[in-house]
Design goal:
The chain has 108 residues and is mostly helical. The protein is 68% helix and 0% strand. Helix 2 crosses helix 3. The protein starts with a helix and ends in a 6-residue tail after the last helix.
Amino acid sequence: MKKLNERIKKIREELHLSQEYVAKYMNLNRTAISQIESGNRKVSAEELKVFSELFGITADELINGNEERIPENMFVRSFEELDEADKKEIMNLIKFKKMMKEKPINNV
């Protein structure tokens, strides 16, 4: 079973979040995030709460390693914070991706 620091790093990378972004979100410096991920710094209860909010999973899921599902609520929360033009752009991209999956590509 992975340790908490390893799960934090794995989830951060799966969500394509930089250490810098996470640090700013948590009001820490990037070095603190690096130390947490390497196991050289403990995570406080408050930091655990913020990690779970950012990653869109419960603190229990983060601690116990049950991160098999995609944190949809994190994406919904992020989407709601965008302006209308960005929302429209993302929706168009989703439509395009669906269309590309439904339409077979003919290699000629």
